[in-house]
Amino acid sequence: MSEKKKMRATIPEEEYMFPGTVDCQGCGAAYAMRLALKALGPKTMVVIPACCWSIIAGPFPTSALKMPIYHTAFETAAAVASGVKAGLSIREKEATVLAWAGDGGTFDIGVQSLSAAAERNEDFIYVCYDNEAYMNTGIQRSSATPWGAWTTTTPRKHPKDRPKKNMMEIMAAHRIPYAASATVGHPEDFVRKLKKAREIRGTRFFHVLATCPTGWRSPPELMLEVPRLAVETCVFPLYEIDNGVYSISKKPKEKLPVTEYLKVQGRFRHLTDQQIQYIQEHVDETWELLLKKEKLGRLF
Amino acid sequence: MFVEVRWHGRGGQGVVTASELLAGAALAEGKYLQAFPEFGPERMGAPIRAFTRISDGPIEIHSHVYTPDIVVVLDPTLLENPAITEGLSDEGKLIANFSGTPDEVRKITKFMGRIYTVDATRIAMETIGRPIANTCCVGALVKVTSLVGLEQVENQIRQMLEFKIGKKGADANVEALRRAYDEVRS
Amino acid sequence: MSTVKVITGNHAASFGARDSRAEVIAAYPITPQTQIVELLSEFCADGTLKAKFIKVESEHSAMAACIGASAAGVRAYTATSAHGLALMHEMLHWAANGRHPVVMANVNRAMGPPWSIWTDQNDSLAQRDTGWLQFYCESNQEVYDTTMIAFKACEQVLLPGMLVLDAFILSHTYEPVEMPDQELIDEFLPPFDPPYKMDLDDARAFGALTTPEWYMELRYLIQEAHEKALVTVREVEKEFGETFGRYYGTLELYRCDDAEEVILIAGSTASTAKDAVDIMRKGGRKIGLARIKLFRPFPNEEIRDIASRVNKMIVIDRNVSFGNQGIFFNEIKASLYSAKNRPPVYGFVAGLGGRDMKIDDITGIVEQADTCDIEEILWWGVKL
Ligand SMILES: Cc1ncc(C[n+]2csc(CCOP(=O)(O)OP(=O)(O)O)c2C)c(N)n1
Ligand code: SF4
Ligand SMILES: [Mg+2]
Prior knowledge:
Shape of chain A: globular
CATH architecture of the largest domain in chain C: 3-Layer(aba) Sandwich
Mean pLDDT of chain C: 97
Oligomer: heterotrimer
Number of domains of chain C: 2
CATH topology of the largest domain in chain C: Rossmann fold
Number of strands of chain C: 15
Bound molecules: thiamine diphosphate, iron/sulfur cluster, magnesium ion
Strand order of the largest sheet of chain A: 2-1-3-4-6-5-7-8
Helix content of chain A: 25-40%
């Protein structure tokens, strides 16, 4: 009982998102926003480029959020957030600027403006909710789509044949003060990291795995379970890069085989044993590398 | 003949496929046709509509359908929604996926024209093995309106589905279509 | 044997590109164009189309990749809509000024903010001065056919071409589309063989700095090519008609022979307006319709010709040039300035952001033109 209470206390009870949004059942992206706003609190302004969230945020004249939202063009989240922050500072207004983009808006079309903003160390929190494809336009591949996955532009006969871009490493290469990965299956971890990030100045980057039952062909009720499996299999490690220091937030006691994660999602249904083996090897390598980095101490 | 059909269902239930099926069958019979979905961002599970126009002569018009002659409801949970009968005159027909009688549907919808019901979800479960009511609803529509021949729709199902879901799946859908055709109640 | 398929306007575009044997496709998804890209990537994956599909990270790169492919001497194709087209803007100039006959389908969609995914002509018309040919389609069949017509005409004049289809009204609407035998198409549209390309045996520099000494001459050549394009498009359309039995023309006239007044309009609304014309004719009005198929180059002579035969012109624009008027309205009036016979021209801005255009709207507009002041900028159906 007391244990339970303690856990609840880590996630603030205040709600800044209204119920009744128009996302699909079991949408991780919607839940991620709800958690993020709880963590960041009411003094937050949100910048959203084109993505599923352009729809989830509600059609005119409604809004799903209690805070100001600026909807912007697909490729511009980081640049518009830079401008908003600059404007606010001229007006001497304190607010956390939250750029909230999908993987397409981050890894692909928005990478230029994001890289430039990170190099300038612009003072905002950038959250990429990663559902590993362009979902708003109906499940096309992005450079965040994992190797072997089906999307409408990587048909089952020719699934994605390149690995997922490693965005955390790309952001770390900009030597920003803080970068963290998180998932919607680990709400406490996500909220803790956001609260920490809120107190840091400069560019803070979040890579959040956000379940998309529609695009992943996974049962909506497994919204929390699927990303947990991603972490337990080390497909998607939870870690922080805090001022150049890598620390892994969750090391699975017993690393599960990747099939546990793959088999609950229809987008991997066509994979052969050999292909799954290939994925396993890639996951193992990347995990080992991360463990090594953690041991090295401060890297920049 | 110039007939406008409006389909109601939810995203993911095959509403657009139903309108496409009917359109394909009409084409095979040398009729003119047009089929289109609701114009908007659809999310899984959200109520959506689709439309089919069938005519003996060329169809020029490219605006929405406002006064359908026939309304088909694929999802029984939508029957309470007043949008179901919007623009449908008492001369029109309402076909519903519903396990009860047309009178029960009349009570829910207050629609005064002719009502037909078909227990499409059950038939789909028994034939296709999944609660996909779209082919059943087309079967009911064909029986009630004779807009196109049943065989034409069967051919269409085979053409459209065999390549997508294989012969077994297409057979199951044809069976669902036929059973709905036979079991529709007025 | 030709086949008939019931397909959406988007798929008509994909099939058009397939049957035109596009060799490099670089495209990026955007509602409501997405299905064009999806089907083409399927064609490329299953080998139905032997093309290389470059899955770029943005539209700017999509157009840039098409330009690269065209410079390397192959037939390049892309498709986009609204914000994607706007993001391409720099490279649209590049394609035309570089004389690359890339063909693109643009699904007309409203520009944000606010976000809108519905039809509106401002996205493509804003690209008016980039040097692209622009074809406005009325049906899915026309989308399919125009893909080939555009490739053939564009490759002859070495200019890029954009075919335009309305969001949802065509892009997502299923209509029967007849697709001819591939052999016949291949005869109509032979392989692309540009006079200049990136070639080791014929090394040239493309697009190098050009001083005021010569820049203007290069622009003059583009203007000349556009003037030629007007003739070329007509010839190609004629040849297409003779081969496949479907004629469109650059300014399509509907019931204009004895018309005393005429509606001018582009895109799929034209077909609804044709129904409206039929209804108004039954009511005794001698009215006709002129559909603007080709916007660039602009069919000035044909506009002047129809103007000389009627007492009144009514232009319906699904677009607006803010601070002035509807864009087609402006263009039409400009082409009439030098005409001897200039009837009054009324302009209506209507149907922006996908506001549905019904038969009643067309008849209503025509009736309002009976009584309104010609100096007025008329916005049809605004609730404010
Ligand atoms: C310049 C431009 N190109 C394309 C689009 C169309 N578009 C809107 S959202 C989207 C995909 C977004 O993908 P992602 O960022 O991963 O977010 P998700 O939809 O998956 O949540 C695309 C391609 C656009 N709005 N603007
Ligand atoms: S498509 Fe995926 S990300 Fe978009 S609303 Fe649906 S579940 Fe959420
Ligand atoms: Mg995404």
